[in-house]
Amino acid sequence: MPLMESLRPLRSTPDNHQALIVRPISGALGAEISDINLAKCANSIDQIKAAFLKYHVLVFREQTLNPIEIKNFAKYFGPLETHPYIKGLDEHPEVAPIIKEANEKINFGGGWHTDMSFLSCPPLGSLLYAIDTPEFGGDTLFANQHAAYESLSDYMKEFVGQLKGLHSAASQYGLNGDSEKRSEARKSMSLGISEKAHAQVSHPVVRTHPESGLRALYVNRPFTERLEGLRSSESNALLSFLWSHCEEPRFTCRVRWEPGTVTLWDNRIVQHYALNDYDGRRREMRRVTIEGDRPI
């Protein structure tokens, strides 16, 4: 099925007979769902899940949620987990504050990546809830990795489909990694540094979505260190190509934030990038991560 056809607007009627309206935000992925309160959405959750599988990124506006309500909504998609290197709220460790103060120059998540691919069972998905946002800037980009895979030649699909990549958290949370080097520049967040971050885990370069069956590229710049079975020069060259290919604008959508915005994305088929274009302005989010399974 052509990509554009699969992204036609969806309108369905949940159990409470209120229409659930889903509007795509780009031709590649992403949709906004309007007129819904995520604190009271039990009757609409089947339709939300269907839209999640179809669009991969869902945006909800004008929400007012406390940490318990954030967690309760995310739990519809699976058990929650605590981030191994980000300190969560004291009473709600599964809810991690993502903050950049107005006097800071470096943001968190400022580069294309897939959340925590360094775990043996990376997250199913992640949710961000906007508390404080700049009047402009600070958008997040998302990239459809199924579309990136489908655009490869048949020969390249066959070749990369046989490969596995080694992932680790070393570049971000390891000794002398990004978190340690930039600790003074990112004081608003408490990020862990550990030798354990250097442990490697093997994942297929092309993973199959466990629910939709869609195949997607599964490599990202900060966490995929090399490709198994290839010489270093070969691995570096192929990873460089795949990283650039995965990030092409034709596969992306852009989410604009405002206080009360909630965005939920499917980590199994999406990469994302938090733009750092709001110097002198504050941005505060709450993040929840949903447990996933081992990529196949």
Q: Can you describe this structure?
A:
The radius of gyration is 19 Å and the shape is globular. It has one domain: 4-Layer Sandwich (Double-stranded beta-helix). The strands form four sheets. Strands 1, 2, 3, 4, 5, 6, 7, 15 and 17 form a nine-stranded mixed β-sheet that branches. The chain has a three-stranded antiparallel β-sheet with strand order 14-8-16. With 296 residues, it is an alpha+beta fold. Mean pLDDT is 92; it is low at 1-17. The chain has helices at residues 3-6, 45-55, 67-74, 145-150, 154-160, 170-173, 178-181, 232-246; strands spanning 10-12, 20-24, 31-34, 57-60, 80-81, 95-100, 125-132, 140-144, 164-167, 201-204, 206-208, 215-217, 224-227, 252-255, 262-266, 270-274, 283-290. Strand 2 (20-24) and strand 3 form a beta hairpin. The longest helix has 15 residues, at 232-246.
Summarize the structure.
With 296 residues, this protein is α+β, with helices and mostly antiparallel strands.
Number of strand segments = 17
Could you say which structural class the secondary elements and strand pairing correspond to? alpha+beta
Give the low-pLDDT segments.
1-17
Chain oligomer state: single chain
Mean pLDDT: 92
Provide the domain count.
1
- CATH homologous superfamily (4th level) name: Clavaminate synthase-like
Give the DSSP E fraction (strand runs of 2 or more residues).
25-35%
Give the % helix. Answer: 10-25%
Radius of gyration: 19 Å
Question: What is the third-level CATH name, the topology?
Answer: Double-stranded beta-helix
Morphology call: globular
